[in-house]
């Protein structure tokens, strides 16, 4: 059964973190200070929702890179219970998917908890001032891109780049739940 995110943190500032990525570097939101928009996506390797839409995220990053939009993905899943989500597997998936944005590991899950991330994918769009303006779905058909009639994330990006301050009628994202570590 899919899990939906919430939108309780709209209009809040970006939360700082510093996490390792599959490219061997460490990243934080401040590394993208010149970006017009910063899009943070909580995702993982094994989720069928993510697997279905990752090519669309890659296409959007390619389309909007020159307009100052930067994507950043974070995997916070428990890799002991879900070995497919290990850092080593993330590196493999990064290469297989030919990802064009950093893919970070949140092993402690502290970042996911601070962001109140709930599902994969869980999408956060921050404006130039790094205030959360969109937290919703990618589009209206995760299974079949040819059936998409509403490109919600693309529309939000266009609106924010055009100077709009708020995005109306945000539809929550659905996906697999974050796989939390049992303590």
Oligomeric state, counting identical vs distinct chains = single chain
CATH topology: Glutaredoxin
Strand neighbour order, sheet with most strands:
6-5-4-8-9
Report on the biggest sheet.
5 strands, mixed
Q: Rg, please?
A: 15 Å
What top-tier CATH class fits best? Alpha Beta
Fourth CATH level, the homologous superfamily: Glutaredoxin
The secondary structure category is: alpha+beta
Helix content: 10-25%
Under the CATH scheme, which architecture would be assigned? 3-Layer(aba) Sandwich
Q: Approximately what portion of the residues adopt beta-strand conformation?
A: 15-25%
Please tell me the overall pLDDT: 95
Q: What is the helix tally? A: 4
**H-E order:** EEEEHEHEHEEEHE
Describe what this molecule looks like in 3D:
By secondary structure, the protein is α+β, with helices and mostly antiparallel strands. It has a single domain, classed as Glutaredoxin, CATH 3.40.30. The protein is 24% helix and 20% strand. The chain is built from 4 helices and 10 strands. The strands form 3 sheets. Strands 6-5-4-8-9 form a 5-stranded mixed beta sheet. Strands 1-10-7 form a 3-stranded antiparallel beta sheet. Helix 2 links the parallel strand 5 and strand 6. It is globular, with a radius of gyration of 15 Å. 39% of the residues are buried.
């Amino acid at each position: 059964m899919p899990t939906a995110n919430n939108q309780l943190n709209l209009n809040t500032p970006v939360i700082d973190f510093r996490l390792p990525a599959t490219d061997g570097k460490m990243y934080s939101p401040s590394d993208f200070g010149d970006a017009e928009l910063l899009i943070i996506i909580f995702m993982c390797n094994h989720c069928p929702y993510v697997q279905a839409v990752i090519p669309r995220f890659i296409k959007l990053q390619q389309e909007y890179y020159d307009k100052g939009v930067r994507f950043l993905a974070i995997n916070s899943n428990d890799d002991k219970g879900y070995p497919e989500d290990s850092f080593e597997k993330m590196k493999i998936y990064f290469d297989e998917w030919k990802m064009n944005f950093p893919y970070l590991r949140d092993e402690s899950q502290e970042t996911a908890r601070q962001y109140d991330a709930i599902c994969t994918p869980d999408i956060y769009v921050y404006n130039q001032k790094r205030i959360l303006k969109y937290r919703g779905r990618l589009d209206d058909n995760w299974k079949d891109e040819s059936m998409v009639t509403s490109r919600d994330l693309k529309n939000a990006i266009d609106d924010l780049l055009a100077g709009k301050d708020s995005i109306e009628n945000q539809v929550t994202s659905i996906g697999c739940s974050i796989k939390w570590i049992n303590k």
